[in-house]
Design goal:
By secondary structure, the chain is of the alpha/beta class. Helices cover 30% and strands 26% of the residues. The protein has two domains: 2-123 and 272-331, Medium-chain alcohol dehydrogenases, catalytic domain (Quinone Oxidoreductase, Chain A, domain 1, Alpha-Beta Complex), CATH 3.90.180; 127-268, NAD(P)-binding Rossmann-like Domain (Rossmann fold, 3-Layer(aba) Sandwich). Pfam families: ADH_N, ADH_zinc_N.
């Protein structure tokens, strides 16, 4: 048996989270059993807790998709270049809110000494999602401009750093507080950030670009930002939709004409439902492009706060508050 975070009644608010006792997983073919040292929180965890996130069929019921830890054993068949005792971090279909996790070695990464357990646990989901959106789906090229909505979220913080390193001409962002705007402009060095509570971000970006617009927009909001995304898109621009925090039903009066006249491509994408081979390719991209920059500190993992395993309720409440800049991580002592 092992400790894991459960949900009383199967779904509910943060107060329904508790430390449960469940069976320790047994690694299957091509899997490693990892003793978890830390795990990262993601917005999908909030949706799953409320019973609003459709789980892929291979996912365990308990939450958590990113973690760091130590390899304890292996299932049968291939283990790539991993061995017992290796310090690793990785991406999983679920089950990271626990003392142990069984996960495919295709989604494990050797943890460099330059990353703490807490930092490493905050890398997989966010940096792989950002890489996927920017390069694989968004087809970002050096010299182009990019707009990151929810700019102080972990994925956008990762993506902003990736875009800078890849030679972005200009990087714009939106956020909901003066503190976040200052963080984005002064700490991350975006070209300009706009407060969606006090500014018309669409009009401001069109003004900042002289009406040319942005080549690529990464959006987590959905319906309420759809018109603005079309308005600020450059000719042959792309919009990558990663979330629906603002709903999935378009408001009345949305004008889709820019889709045609500016030849805009809008594409939605998820990561968790992708197969292992697809995720493995993204892992390899992370290892080859981002890992060296973590080691030389070009890329930073921004950890907002670290909680103990038993403080999972407080951790979820903080994530729900939308006040954070970076990752929330729990450590398993």
């Amino acid at each position: 048996m092992m400790r894991a975070i459960g949900i009383r009644g199967g779904k509910g608010p943060a107060t329904s989270l508790f430390v449960d006792q469940i069976a320790k997983p047994i690694p299957g073919a091509g899997q490693a059993l990892v003793k978890v040292r830390a795990f990262g929180l993601n917005r999908m965890d909030l949706l799953q807790r409320e019973g609003l996130y459709p789980l892929p069929p291979q996912a365990p019921e308990n939450m958590g998709v990113e973690f760091s830890g130590v390899v304890e054993s292996f299932g049968p068949e291939g283990h790539e270049d991993f061995k017992i005792g290796d310090e690793v971090f990785g991406l999983a279909y679920g089950g990271a809110y626990a003392e142990y996790i069984a996960v495919s070695t295709k989604m494990l990464v050797h943890k460099p000494a330059q990353l703490s357990w807490e930092e490493a646990a905050g890398v997989p989901e966010t940096w792989i999602t950002a890489s996927q959106a920017l390069f694989l789906i968004g087809d970002f090229q050096p010299g182009q401009s990019v707009l990151w909505h929810a700019g102080a979220s972990s994925v956008s913080i990762s993506g902003i750093q990736l875009a800078k390193a890849a030679g972005a001409k200009a990087i714009y962002a939106t956020a909901g507080s003066k503190e976040k705007i200052e963080f984005l402009e002064k700490e991350l060095g975006v070209t300009a950030a706009f407060n969606y509570h006090t500014q018309d971000w669409s009009a401001e970006i069109q003004k900042a670009t002289g009406g040319a617009g942005v080549n690529l927009t990464i959006d987590f909001i959905g319906a309420t930002y759809f018109q603005g995304n079309l308005d600020v898109a450059a000719r042959d621009g792309r919009v990558v939709l990663l979330g629906l925090m603002g709903g999935g039903k378009l408001p009345d009066g949305v004008n889709i004409a820019p889709l045609l006249f500016k030849r805009i491509r809008v594409e939605g994408s998820t990561l968790r439902s992708r197969d292992e081979e697809y995720q493995r390719k993204l892992r390899d991209t992370l290892v080859s492009h981002a890992l060296p920059k973590f080691c030389d500190k070009t890329f930073r993992v921004f950890v907002e706060k670290v909680f103990r395993f038993e403080e999972i309720e407080q951790a979820h409440k903080l994530l729900e508050s939308n006040t954070t800049k970076g990752k929330i991580v729990c450590v398993v002592e």
